[in-house]
Structures are given as C-alpha cells and as structure tokens.
Structure prediction request, 174 residues.
Amino acid sequence: MSERPEQHTEQHRDPVDAIVEQWAKVRPDLDTTAMEVFGRINRIAHAMGERATKVYATFGISRGEFDVLATLRRSGEPYTLSPRQLSATLMLTTGGMTGRLDKLERAGLLRRSPDPHDRRGLHVTLTDQGLALVDEAVGAGLAVQTRALSALDAKQAGLLAGLLRALLTGADRP
Prediction:
C-alpha cells in the first residue's frame, strides 16, 4: 500500500487500518482502497444504526417503525401515503410493511382508512400522537448523528457529504 499524505497517524488508527495492513503483508499486489472506504462506511453505518436503535427505543419504536413514521411526516400534510408508496420508499415487501403498520396502528401513531378513489386501496395517515412522536424522535436521532459528525469541521462535513453523494451515484449504477 502506498503512503498517502492523508495516511493515518498512530493515534488515529482504526480497525480497518489493521485489516488493510494484514492484506498488504499477504497480498501486496492488491489495491485495498475500496476496502478502506467501504469497510469504514460499513462500520460507521453499523455504529450509527445501533445508536439510532437505542434512541428510538426510548420513544417505544424500532428503527423500522421510525422509518415509516418519518416517511409519512416527510410527505407533508396531510401526512398520508398508501401502503404501496410506503413499501416502495422503504424498500420493504408488503408483508413486512403490514407488520409495521399493524404495530404502529395499535400504538395509536397512525391510522389506516379506505382510499375514497380506489375500493381496493388504503391510506395510511399519521395521527396527532404519531406526528408529535416522530417530531421528537427525529430531533433526538439527529442530535446523535450531529455529535458523531462533530469529529469533522463544517467544511470537512460538506466535502464528505458531496463525496458520499458521488460514491452513491456510482454505486447505484449497474
């Protein structure tokens, strides 16, 4: 692995550095740059996912249930979508969505009602209780993310956001 100006210092080593160094010893022919990037992305996603799970649990909901409530909230007033729209946005099967909707409806956080324009369709709408809960939960979740992001200054955070956008665009291509 070639030394780069942004190469880690001993005090900033992370578990990915150790993995890359091991590969360099046994397979020095490999370019492990992608492993460095995606290994760190995966570890960050895992760590932040665990933190989000803990935060949302304090509101009595799972991360998946938060995603449903947040999707309805982001849709704007009247905070209503069809189960199919929710499933497509969250990349869930209709069966997986039904379980989440059942639990959230029992908790009084959303309600399902017939679609007035399609006898076979349903509307899913946030209740006032659901709206209040998701507004609190999104603030708490963002506070956890903001604390983690404070390791970077504003310029670095903006640069990282742009780089990740470009990487996501590339990763989404077949």
Confidence is low (pLDDT under 50) at residues 1-5. The first strand starts at residue 80 and ends at 81. The chain has seven helices and three strands. The helical segments are 15-26, 33-57, 63-74, 83-90, 94-106, 128-149, 154-172.
